[in-house]
Amino acid sequence: MAEILLSEAEKTFILHGVEEGFRCDGRMRLDYRPMEVETDVVSHASGSARLRLANTDILVGVKTEIDTPYPERPREGKIEFFVDCSANATPAFEGRGGEELGTEISNSLATAYQSSQTFDLTALCILPGQQCWKLYIDILILECGGNLFDAVSLAVKAALHNTRVPKVKGACLDGGTVDLQLSDDPYDCCRLDVSDAPCLVTLCKIGDHCVVDPTAEEETCSSGSVVIAITEKSLVTSVFKTGVGSFHPQTLIDILKVGQTIGLSVNKALRAALLEEEQQGRKKECFGFLK
Amino acid sequence: MWTTKTFLKKRKGSVLKIVREHYLRDDIWCGSDICTICAHQNEELVLEKNPQPKNKKFPFPHYIVLDTCVVLNQINVLEEDALCNVIVVQTVLEEVKHRSSSVYKRLLDIVGNPNRKFYVFVNEHHKDTYVEREPGEKVNDRNDRAIRVSVAWYESHLMSSQADRRKRDRVKVILLTDDVDSKQKAENEGLHVATISDYVRNVEDCPGLEDRLSQHNTTYELQAGGREPLFPAHFTPSQIHQGIKSGKLLQGSFLASRENFLEGQVNVEGQDKMILVQGRVGLNRAVDGDIVAVKLLPEEEWSVPSHMVLQDEGDDSEDVLEEENAILKSKDERVAKLPTGHIVGIIRRKWRQYCGILQKNPIEGSVRHIFVPAERKVPKVRIETQQADILSSQRIIVTIDSWPRNSRYPLGHFVRALGTIGDKDTENEVLLLEHDVPHSKFSEAVLSCLPKLPWVITEKDVQSRVDLRHVDICSVDPPGCTDIDDALHCKELENGNYDVGVHIADVSHFIRPGTAIDKEAALRATTVYLVDKRIDMVPELLSSNLCSLRGNEERFAFSCIWELTSEAEIVSTRFCKSIIRSRQAMTYEEAQIKIDDLTQNDTLSKSLRGLNSLAKILKKRRIENGALVLASPEIRFQVDSETQDPIEVEAKKLRETNSMVEEFMLLANIYVAIKILEDFPECAMLRRHPKLPVSNFEPFIKAGRNLGFEINSESGKALALSLDNAVRPDNAYFNTMLRILATRCMMQAVYFASGMVQRDEFFHYGLAAPVYTHFTSPIRRYADVIVHRLLAVSIGADVTYPDLLDKRKSHSLCHNLNYRNRMAQYAGRASVALHTHLFFRGKVQDEQGYVLCVRKNALQILIPKYGLEGTLYVSPHKGAKQNVTFVYSEEKQTQKCGDVIFRPFDPVTVQLSLDRSNVQHEKIVLKLVHPQIPGFSVPSLSSVKRKESDENLQEEMEISEVSVSPPIEKISTKKQKVK
Amino acid sequence: MARMDLISFKGLRLDGRRANELRQIRCKMGVFSQPDGSAYLEQGNTKVLAAVYGPHEIRGSRSKALHDKALVNCQYSMATFSTGERKRRPRGDRKSQEMSMHLRQAFQAAIRVEVYPRSQIDIFVEVLQADGGNYCACVNAATLALVDAGIPMTEYVVACTASLANGDVPLVDVSNLEENSGGPNLTVAALPLSGQVALMEMSQRFHLDHLPKVVECALQGCRDIHQILDQAVRRHTEMSGSALGWGNRAQVDL
């Protein structure tokens, strides 16, 4: 991850602060930093969102392609995550430098979305056993200011919310090949239901306490984190631990409880933000990176 | 500079979202001389300051705005000078371009004419007139709205510049639209609006204009982007499989109609009647030759083949064809209906490479073009190429890649160019390719199988063969023949009987089974004769030298020798491999002279006379048995020895000697057939001519009945008799024509392996022979080679090999032979047609012809002199006007115009000429000369010369294209031979 | 699509521009805080981000270090969703590598590399949306990022494309649609003030006689873009200056 050089004294300062319940930027242990989200920023993609969590900058583009369903799941579409760590974030990502981190994040997303309770893949089916939509969720990390998992998962959810899958008016088999008729009205398209899409919440263990939304500096002080995927219905779809440190089982259970409540509120906040944006309608001004 | 974006989605295998920029400007001017606001350049002032109000309905100065349908439907009206001061909005221009490139081009021509004062207003990029598509709005509606917005904008824009004018002098803007909905909306919005007919009717000082209004109110379904599918979807392979299994669907090969591109038949194996398929939906993207699945319609929806000659002349537009509706409507209740079906799936595509020409897109620089195949059964193909300019004068090869549901034509790509159109070599190449004739040079492997020269007869050869070198044998062939494969002799024996021999070139001696040369010959199956070229089945060394039974050269032969009584009763038959020396290679004419010239008394002459008299008896007996004498028009070209261009055409003469040779060949074939069938009941290669179902004769019998002749087709003999009796003293050609027509009703004779067909189906109908085979032309037919081998085994002269005795292998071999034979025949005819075209270059001739049959919109005319069949259209082409009308009676098979009635077989005089106006597509044009129909017929050539100064020559009338006569099997051993 | 269509007889291009008009350019400097300099630039629907790190020590093997000047390291990468059809890899393919090389070529000509011996300057560009003229947008964005990073340059490097429509009309700033329609395509990266060409690349062929015309067209485009960039830089400096207090004074002075 981004190269953050901290001296021992700085580390101790952060550590002690967390113990006391104060963080460098003035937050409490369970506070998030301010977040900005904007959808529909990449017009070439079927859906997109840019999320900025303080210094963390994530751009997500969703592309739809036609594919054949897996033979064992003929009635489901496909979804694939790809994380690209741009060298813009740090020179360390140059070339193939960001690949390892990218794979870690995309795998965690894939696990979180794997449960059938999260994201309904059957909506992506066109012709059972023959054709389905495949969603490519491409995540571009433009700047790393800590807490990538949370930021990425929120951006993905926002982008999926924004995704418009072309409406198939009729699909049938023409001989052996599939023949599709698409609606020629660009406004006539399908939205995806993202209400059950999970958000990842990272709880970062610093000393004996856990904080949410760690900054890059805090992350360097941490011995390990637990990442929890939570849906709006407060279902936990995946839990995994990152980092080198170890956790006491009881700590883990406590963390899960905390994470659940936080996850719920984050989900809620995101949903509210997306709704608010949508209410501005078609005439909404698109800021993108110009703001 | 403003900017917004448009969103487009495109399909290309998958779905792409395409976003394009769209700039809106404030520097697009209105083009009107009135305007004081726009910063016009002078040349941009197209619309007049004071347009003349020439319309009774709108008696004030005005400009006109057209909508897309008006332009598409009424381009003829627009081309008249009457409408001026017209604003063409860009929306319309683009839509027109999308819909019909020809109309687009015509519209651009009008716009380019400064006198017409047509101004193109780029409304799509104007900041005030651009409209964005609303959610749920159809493209059409959006475009109509865009047009109305432009009209409204003009109205207010102009108003602000002419506030100082008097009210009635103010220029207004009128929208012309035929769209009811749009008109209504425009009225509600307070615009001036009218339908085009309404407007045109009220135009002053332009009387002819109203007539040019197109009457057909085709409402073009305008679509951008995602086109609606034109065809129903095909069934999946598993659906088809199930359907066929359960009997709901039928499998068969699709045969497209040559005359009507919206009709075809499906030949279902095991059914005697073909299934008719009609219309675009019925055909559902099947291409000639495809193996398809058909669904039979319920009987009440059955139909009859239309009697229309219909060629696809539409350009690339996607509109529903009126012709199609015409076909489907023209169901006549009285005529017996045929089983009709819809093609629902394609089991196997038989797409190949097609020869043809490029029909260039009228829009300069476009890369999308239409390919027109030479074969009329094949649909046009849409291709993309950058080199249209070069290719448009060439014959090209194109292959089909796919045929999506939303495309009127299949999509394909350019493969290669063959050469310049009209060039003889190119055209020959085209017809060889088109008929799938293998015509490449023989490979080294094949050539290495040839015997080494000098070829000598060894002592061993002499021992294993019967030496017939002492017998006076001669051959009789057409002039210039170099592949002589048969020779004859006849010797009177002491007991008064005749010793008659038919000696056939021993090709199987040189072509050993399994060698490269054998495989090549089996593939080629037959020698193909074109007018100026011969495509050999075996290399020339064999065909024209070692196997050819040339005069005074010792050659190996396979002989069939009979002892015949003077009454031509056969006493004994024997077969042997022999060595012969033909005394003389004669032409038919030479032989005829020898026979007729009684002063000649050499052995050859005597032997010929003997043969001739026996042949006459044989023929008589054969005809008594019910053999048919059929006819097909055959012609010969006299070719310029240097340019190889045809200089004269003549129908072939038939002499007694032709029939003499033919008779003995038939005899040999029949006896060989008996022999090999006896020895190889399972795997003899025979030839049969199936008796045709009576239904095939129905139209023919009907035609005869209309003229008072009862044709009996129950048996071959009955048919032969009734044909003989059908003679009309006033029409000498009548009988020949009947025979030509009868020939067309016939099935094709085919090769088969005896083990694959029931014994009672062996019969050869045309020759009235219980068994028949081909033995006498092994140089040019592969079937004969096989028969030779079989016969050689059966007389112990050769050994057998496994494939020869395998009836399945023989069966598949027969399949290829039949296919190649058919193709060779078609190629030969196509070659004749090609030369006929060459012959008519720069010529116009009046010729005697006969009505062969009567179609709904045309007469098929046969011109015996050229063996040529052409179509004389009697109803006008789309758009053209004709002063006379013909009335068609399907029942009586007549076309009537005033007092003149055309019935089948009626003699007519037609004028032949070559229409070279389209270099890509030369065609022979027939025009009626006699009987005269004022306003339709043309004066005869001689009278034209007299009246050259007379300007009022009748308008040139209808046109046609010439086709070579459709498949006929020549049941004879005649061959067209070539210099 | 036919070549004919590139410019209508009314003199408008497919998107409504005239032959000599650029696409709309919008840009912003200093979009990120971590890099030393960053910029975002839109040229029509082509959108790119550029980040500049450095000058800093040579990363990786020291052997790459140049004793008399700075090493300019460029990386061009495209977001997988930037094109119409999804890209499989954001970088590392031939095209991207070529682009990286071209970027380096252009900037080595303009950055005063001799000021920073034995050090390295990283220029990373990320194409977020590709709609023709990707390279140009990257060069222009990178120039802004370099200015933002305060790296001394002899002058701005500005790039622009040009094409030829209907056989004789030069078009400036070619869009993706026009690029794909088969006409020739000339890319020029220039130092517009001195009028020097830092990089020139051409695809397809056209007659040599047309070359001066098309090059001039591209150079004119570069000059126009230079003006736009220069204004943006001034505005940005004013803004960030005002945060430091001296912008206010300027207003007072007015």
Automatic annotation (TrEMBL), chain A:
Principal location: cytoplasm
Recorded GO CC terms: cytoplasmic exosome (RNase complex); nuclear exosome (RNase complex); nucleolus
Localization (cell): Cytoplasm; Nucleus, Nucleolus
Cytoplasm in keyword set: yes
Record keywords, A-Z: Cytoplasm, Exosome
Signal peptide: none
Gene3D superfamilies found in the cross-reference section: GHMP Kinase, N-terminal domain
GO MF terms held by the record: mRNA 3'-UTR AU-rich region binding
InterPro entries referenced in this protein's UniProt entry, alphabetically: ExoRNase_PH_dom1, ExoRNase_PH_dom2, ExoRNase_PH_dom2_sf, Exosome_comp_Rrp42_subfam, PNPase/RNase_PH_dom_sf, Ribosomal_Su5_D2-typ_SF
Ranges for domain Exoribonuclease phosphorolytic: 32-166, 196-260
GO biological process, alphabetically ordered: exonucleolytic trimming to generate mature 3'-end of 5.8S rRNA from tricistronic rRNA transcript (SSU-rRNA, 5.8S rRNA, LSU-rRNA); nuclear mRNA surveillance; nuclear polyadenylation-dependent rRNA catabolic process; rRNA catabolic process; TRAMP-dependent tRNA surveillance pathway; U1 snRNA 3'-end processing; U4 snRNA 3'-end processing; U5 snRNA 3'-end processing
Recorded family membership: Belongs to the RNase PH family.
Protein's UniProt name: Ribosomal RNA-processing protein 42
Organism whose genome encodes this protein: Cryptotermes secundus
UniProtKB/TrEMBL annotation, chain B:
Keywords: Cytoplasm, Endonuclease, Exonuclease, Exosome, Hydrolase, Nuclease, Nucleus, RNA-binding, rRNA processing
Similarity comment text for this entry: Belongs to the RNR ribonuclease family.
GO molecular function, one term: RNA binding
The encoding gene: Dis3
Cellular component GO terms held in the UniProt record: cytoplasmic exosome (RNase complex); nuclear exosome (RNase complex); nucleolus
Region (Disordered): 940-965
Annotated compartments: Cytoplasm; Nucleus, Nucleolus
UniProt protein name: Protein DIS3 homolog
UniProt superkingdom: Eukaryota
CDD domains tied to this protein: PIN_Rrp44-like
Major site of localization recorded for this protein: cytoplasm
Domain PIN stretches: 62-184
UniProtKB/TrEMBL annotation, chain C:
SUPFAM superfamilies according to UniProt: Ribonuclease PH domain 2-like (SSF55666), Ribosomal protein S5 domain 2-like (SSF54211)
Major location category of this protein: cytoplasm
GO CC, alphabetical: cytoplasmic exosome (RNase complex); nuclear exosome (RNase complex); nucleolus
Domain named Exoribonuclease phosphorolytic: residues: 21-152, 156-221
One annotated GO molecular function: RNA binding
Assigned keywords, A-Z: Cytoplasm, Exosome
Biological process, per Gene Ontology: nuclear mRNA surveillance; poly(A)-dependent snoRNA 3'-end processing; rRNA catabolic process; U4 snRNA 3'-end processing
InterPro entries xrefs: ExoRNase_PH_dom1, ExoRNase_PH_dom2, ExoRNase_PH_dom2_sf, PNPase/RNase_PH_dom_sf, Ribosomal_Su5_D2-typ_SF, RNase_PH
Pfam families assigned to the protein according to its UniProt record, in alphabetical order: RNase_PH, RNase_PH_C
Signal peptide: none
Sections of the chain in a coiled coil: none
Superkingdom to which the source organism belongs: Eukaryota
Cellular compartment(s): Cytoplasm; Nucleus, Nucleolus
Functional note: Non-catalytic component of the RNA exosome complex which has 3'->5' exoribonuclease activity and participates in a multitude of cellular RNA processing and degradation events.
Subunit composition and interactions: Component of the RNA exosome complex.
The family this protein is said to belong to: Belongs to the RNase PH family.
The protein's name in its UniProt record: Putative exosome complex component RRP41
